[in-house]
Amino acid sequence: MLIIDMDPFEPFSDIVSIMHRFDYFAYFHCNPNMFSIFIRESTPPSIITLTMLPQFFTRFFCDQNHYAQFSMDGFYSQLVLHKRLGYESLIFGLAEFRFHMALEFHSSSFVHPSPQLLRTWQPSYHYEFPGKIGYGPFVSLELHDFRNVVLIFDNTKTHVPFRVTISEFKFFLPDKEIIFTNERDGCIIGGIREGEEWRGAMCLNPIEGYFNFTSKRLWLFESYDPIGVTLVAPFGLYVNISTFFPQILV
Predict the structure, then answer these.
(1) Could you tell me which SUPFAM superfamilies the record lists for this protein (predicted)?
(2) Spatial distance between the Cα atoms of 199 and 229, rounded to a whole number of angstroms
């Protein structure tokens, strides 16, 4: 069984609005240690994950693993509608072997709550977890610098290669490139020795999703099992949105 109480639910709605920019359908995965919503993109391949720790919620109870597909569009529409109507808190529930998630909105201005049921589906394939962060080589950029990168490579529908050395972080294509240095530009580079380099690639679309990030800084890590790179946008101590990009040849 899963029961989550959010009072108020507005911070949750604000974070979900970012995920809503990426796709209309999503999956959630919950266990006693965390609640996550993730979206699988196939072209190019990536996994975008919203992770929330129990401390983020007013009340959090989960006694087992839960995993299901749901309509992100329908879910977010209910949050927006009830926020507009003046509801303040939300109880989110799911029972084992049920094919619906239960939403119950409450407000001090209304006598009765507003219960809603949203359909869920069991995925037809095994869930592939994103790669584990290795905490070896890493790069951190200020949000406004990352937004500039997104704008420069706006028309690129595939992965954009990057290269990291001890002193610089470079995105490049045959016809354009952008370079950040460790000494200036607000760029932080770590975990790389003199003479070493880290190569990878990431997708910078859809632009609407990345432009709704509100973190001050973004962090890029090497990942393993499977191998790839992970971009992390922290939202306070208990919430982050990460995007995992499987390794490609660059």
Answers:
(1) DNA clamp
(2) 10
